[in-house]
Amino acid sequence: MKQRDIFWFWLPLFASWLLMTAEGPIVSAAINRLPNEVIMLAAQGIVVSLSVTIESPIINLLATSTALVKDRASFLQVRRFTVHWMILLTAVTILIAFTPVFDLVVLRWLGTPEPVAQWVRPGMQIMTLWSAAIAWRRFLQGVLIGFNQPRKMAWGTAIRLLASGGSVIVMASFTNWPGVVNGATALMLGVIAEAIYATWAVRPLLQNELSAEQPAVSPPLTYRDLFWFHLPLAGTSVIILLVQPLVTFSLARLDRPTESLAAWPVVFQIMLMARAASLALPEAVIALTKGPTTYQPIRRFSLTLAGVVAVAVALFTFSPLARLYLFGVQDMTAEVGGLAESSLIYFLPFPALTVISMWLRGVLINGRKTTAVNVAMVVNMFITIVVLAAGLAGQQPGLPTAAVALSLAVLAEIIYLGWRAQQLWPVLSPKVTTRSI
Fold first, then answer.
1. What pTM was estimated for this model as a whole?
2. Residues 235-278 pLDDT 10s
3. Is residue 348 a part of any domain in this protein?
4. Residue 124 belongs to what domain range?
5. Which residues contact 293 (CB under 8 A, 6 or more apart)?
């Protein structure tokens, strides 16, 4: 397998993630140009944080669908599984957005300042169907990737970006709605548009490779097997996305809480864009790993990608681009923008380390070692909690503490994943020894 073959398969997935990560900056840029921008941006950050935490069990439906959907019967089984998750997570969202549970979660657990919390509730109510739309499109996108059609996933994300970005610009220009209402509505419209496109894009597969007339290509996939395959991945996603509320919890209790809560969504979006290259890796590794001959080329591609990401993040941080983005594109206030800019240097190693962890995660998922991936995220969460707790105890600056916590956590995750992946390396590449790794 040549490096260019891996690159051209990975590129549409990367484009999809990059477009997806561009959605947040567009929304926050619109909010920053509306009244009461600091409060609204802080509220929007918590709305997104809670929404992605609720949806976390189905984030890895992409990997599950890619790995397990091979014929009509397995498609129908994973679809049934997806619908069950859609119902469950919608009920959880309703519970938080429309009942007194909101006060428990947002005010007591997260410690959100009252002026911010009052705007979080309408945002969460608008996002009621967010998890359902995400689950459906992740399931179908996994099918597209598994049948070697990653470009359709990128087109779907482009449609989502046009829907969300276009709608937030229109609402900001022609309505007097509060910023968080504009932002939540735009995000909701975007994922609905992408889910509709994914439903249309998968139709040719349902009429051909996944039609009822095609013979089964794998042993029957039982609901039990599907559940136990996905459960560790769901746990992994939950743990990953719990990091967002944990950081929010810490920032709300450290110095300058409102400014830090307003700066954090923008810093997080920058880091999300920087990690888009890595987030596209697991599915590429799963789809392209076909035996011993493919291991070495994929490893080389992943390590090269980590180096490229490290250089790109450094260039952004130490050049005028960071200031241009924060104060030009995002139009942040001097106080909040300065806080965000000064914290970027602490996040430098985080995106490159994420590339390595995602490569190892893909190797283990392909080898059906999903429990190891879950344990690795427990390690990640433990380190995150320890460092954030130390920062709270010492009343350290909020954003630098978050950066150190995230970087040390992913480093610990890599160490664990590498140790577990050693069990698979002799199978994937018999000529590779532990020493040569």
1. 0.77
2. 777 776 667 677 777 777 766 777 777 788 788 888 888 999 99
3. yes
4. 3-428
5. 1
